[in-house]
Write the structure tokens for this entry.
Amino acid sequence: MRVRELVRRLELFAPLNLAESWDNVGLLLEPSCDTEVNRILTTIDLTEQVLEEALAKKCDFILSYHPPLFNSFKRLLQKNAKDRIVMKCVSNNITIYSPHTCWDSVHHGVNDWIISCFDCSSKIAITPSQYLDTAGMGRLATLSSPQPLSTICDIVKRHL
């Protein structure tokens, strides 16, 4: 599959307009135009150690939940870990994509997955999306039956 097709599919699942206004989501680094994607590495945070793993596994696409590129660059220097990550990805033709708050907001996304460990009689987005009726940030859920806090904590621990 090519980069553009993979990005299109990711954005069909969670459109970029679901992201919080402050967030930096979507295709963050495209070292070459529409290259073939052969191996994808997924991670919560793209660190130098994670990038080394991606290189060792010959990955050419990194899906990093948290955006590793957030602030503007004025220069790229070897003394900064974020800069080294960007330069190494470019030199190794690795694409970076971050879904962050899009995946938090989307129906069947991160917030729905977290709450899915409970039997709920209802659940709604705390802050509904202005773009999709089924999306929004956070979840407010009503449990089907009351549970002690210790039981709720145990359920969450097992789920995560």
The beta strands are 26-29, 40-43, 61-64, 95-98, 120-124, 127-128, 136-137, 140-143.
